[in-house]
Specification:
- With about 500 residues, the protein is an alpha/beta fold.
- It is about 35% helix and about 20% strand.
- It is built from 21 helices and 16 strands.
- Strands 1, 2, 3, 4, 5, 6, 7 and 8 form an eight-stranded mixed β-sheet that branches.
- Helix 5 runs parallel beside helix 6 and helix 18 packs antiparallel against helix 19.
Amino acid sequence: MTNAETWDKTLDDLERRRARVWEMGGPERVAKHRGKGKLDARARIAHLLDPGTFREFGTLVGGEVAADALVAGSGMINGVPVMVGAEDFTTLAGTIAPGSNAKRYRLAELAVRDKVPLIMLLEGAGFRPTGDHYGRTPTDLLAQAQCSGRVPVVTAVLGPSAGHGALIAPVSDFAIMSRQGAIFTAGPPVVRISTGEEVTKEDLGGPSVALASGVVHNVAETDEDVLDEIRRYLSYFPSSAWSYPPVYLPDDTTGPRPTPELLNIISRDNRATYDMRAVLDTVFDGADWFEVQPEFGPAILCALAHLGGHPVAVVANQPRVLAGSIDADAADKAAHFIMVADSFHLPLIFLADNPGMLPGSESEREGVLRAGAKMFVAQTTASTLKLHVTLRKAYGFGSMVMSLIGFDGQGGTFAYPGATMGAMSAAALSGASHAQDDVAAELTEMELQASYHSATHMGFDELIRPEETRDALLHALQRGLYARQAAPQPVLRTAIIP
């Protein structure tokens, strides 16, 4: 008998065990799952990663429970290593036991150690009632929390996700769900027993609920669409906080060019609305920029874009919503987005056109000042390159949270001529002070001259024409990036605040 033949029985046994793992919950359960228009856990990973790059670990965890209901390992996205875990709903509803908890912990542990992104694909019912207890065994959430601000963390909700397993979503940098996704503290059966409430999984934590609450950032139609969006999102980011974002080689779309289209998009009349999305289409390298949380706090637009081939993070007021006034949801969204961008060294570009924080009793009850303060702290403490343009107006605290104030560490500050600013608009000041018509007219004229008055005192680096917007930002960006002359270090915070 040859040495190779002595291995036959042992290796046959390994292959038998592996084959059982690859079957997941068995042909019937997998077929039923696929019949709902979903991908199974292994197909999800195959679609997400570059072909042929997935390397699994922990296959034998769980014994006869295939992979202990969690497919885990590493692979590549656009040639960049990532760690990925996918809950297998066909195996005991994707529930978590001590073995799969250990695999989840190991995924996050390796992501931080190797400085690569962590991706979790969720569809599971939380902890499995195994009769075992954890004692002092570390929970996976400890390791996942260590990833925050150090490596990009992305979560996809691709079916019902409950309890412990769902908790990675709200602490992620980016969470996205499919139309069949739902996320909650506990599912409908537990809610029924605990509170007596009869509720469907869609009404408890479907897209309409999860997007409105801000727990999930974006939604896409199918599993495939969600996974494609994850690949697109990560293309703007470095693999970790110890590296810089990828740069795309310049081509016809990335060089200097005037933006005369803005003269037709932006009215000089401060009361006229326009769509800030059209400004982004015009100023940045192309119209394929990536918007984060478009359905939450829409008075501020948060987007990932390219300028001169460099990934940038854009925070822009949206005049079509609340006239650009910043409400609590918009400020909360922007604060988180700013912290994510800062953690991974994406330059921040602020496009300001707002009449201030949203006033009113309802806004105050929603905590607009608390949320505004959160946004203010996020942007004033950001150490990445910051650029600012006031397009038409920016008043009061609404100007401060958009990085208008001096000595805020900006690499470039610009405004259009006629841009208005101050504690409040002339109309609001006239009303608050009960000014007579002649005084009100004088206040309005002073407001219109504010940009020139500010420019004479170096309140902006330069007043620019709308046609010069892209080139002014591109020049300041290219100059500011020369600060990257040393190896980057993580931002000095313990984590990104959800």
